[in-house]
Amino acid sequence: MCLFKELEERGLKIHIHGRDFVAGDYIAANIVTAIKKSRKTLVVLTRNLLDSTWCNYEIQVCDMFLSYVVNSVKV
């Protein structure tokens, strides 16, 4: 079973790029909106994500937002 399907079956809200991002909005805006609506944020790192320039950009946006806007704990 896919990780996100299993997490959703456990009652967690999963924000998936291809499914949940608002078309026409900037990627960074979609990420920030999703983080603001969340109590906790989990980024699942995969080899494909790490090898992708765009995905690395998305991780950096998330990291900057968590570092400078939200009082967060990163593990």
Automatic annotation (TrEMBL):
Domain of life: Eukaryota
One of the record's GO cellular component terms: plasma membrane
GO biological process: signal transduction
Keywords in alphabetical order: Membrane, Signal, Transmembrane, Transmembrane helix
InterPro entries reported for this sequence: TIR_dom (IPR000157), Toll_tir_struct_dom_sf (IPR035897)
GO MF assignments: signaling receptor activity
Domain TIR, residue spans: 1-75
Main location: membrane
Compartment annotation: Membrane
SUPFAM superfamilies xref list: Toll/Interleukin receptor TIR domain (SSF52200)
Protein name: TIR domain-containing protein
